[in-house]
Amino acid sequence: MNYASALAFLPNNSFEYVVFDHSFRDKPQIADDIKKLCDKLQVKYIRVPYTLQINHPSNSHGSVVHWIIQEHASKHKGRVWFLDVDMFFINDWVWEDVMPIAKYDIMTVWQRRPHEHKLGPYIFYIWPNFIIFQNIQSIPDLNKMRWKSVRIGNSDVDSGGESYYWIKEHPLIRIKGIWNAQCDIHGDRSGCQEQYQRQSPEMIERIHQNPDLYELIWPNVSNKGKLNDHGIIGDILILHYRAGSNWNGISKEASDKKWARIQGAVQNALKDKRKRNEEQLFRYNACLQRLRNRQN
Asked: This protein's superkingdom (predicted)?
């Protein structure tokens, strides 16, 4: 579904989609299933070395990101995007609007410690679940970027935390933070609803026509709790399932309900996209026919 949403909402399908599989050594069936699905979808599959597995989720994640950058991404020319597989596009992504080439080198969902609104200084670092390098070969000291969990001052940071040191050493790098409204387990919806209020009347109408997406933004009181532990990135651009590894201990019943709602929201967005494409194609063909009539 991640791949289908990328095909639908990224411009002109102008990308190569690569799956890096970091499933565990002791669960070979998972790796086999991922490989078979990639073959079926005809997308590139790369198995991450088992030696990068560390008995610490954040450090394991950081090691994998570093390996991918050094062994694969750094050899690519142009834009490179790291995106978790539990993130799904639900609206058109327009690069000139979201990340203008002339203004930014990197985009991420900024991570900050401490979380609380206290007097600084704050620790800011790059979130490796969502990174866009505008032109990866122009990034200085790319081989020195590190992504593990560390303790900085009095704050513990999770995966990506080490990037704080690289940022400090490269103050001229232009990093854009993209809005991430986390709809957390306490039922806090203020961020999602602020995004909703900023939308155009056309977009609000489309949200209302997608009942699962609307429910994720404006939930019934009875649905609060871990069922709604998800996020929305950008101005209603990407829906993040969040905690796909179930580190937050959600029950199977709640997980099934959450997945059904998110899956419904994405599928409705894809149907809406197809409908709009058909309408645009109809108008285009009608315009061509009028031109032919004039010529005749």
From this structure: Eukaryota
Q: Are strands 18-21 and 44-47 parallel, antiparallel or unpaired?
A: parallel
Residue 273 predicted with pLDDT over 70: yes
- Report the C-alpha gap between 19 and 45 in whole angstroms: 5
- The residue with tokens 């993130």 is 87
Confidence of residue 188 (pLDDT cuts 50, 70, 90): low
Q: What are phi and psi of 172, to 5 degrees?
A: -90, -10
| Residue 4 zone, left/alpha/beta (φ > 0; ψ -120 to 50; rest) | alpha
Residue of 208, 220, 214, 246 whose CA lies nearest to 232: 214
**Whole-prediction pTM value?**
0.89
Smallest CA-to-CA distance from 241 within 128, 111, 129 is with: 129
Q: Cβ(267)–Cβ(258) under 8 Å?
A: no
Length of the chain, in residues: 296
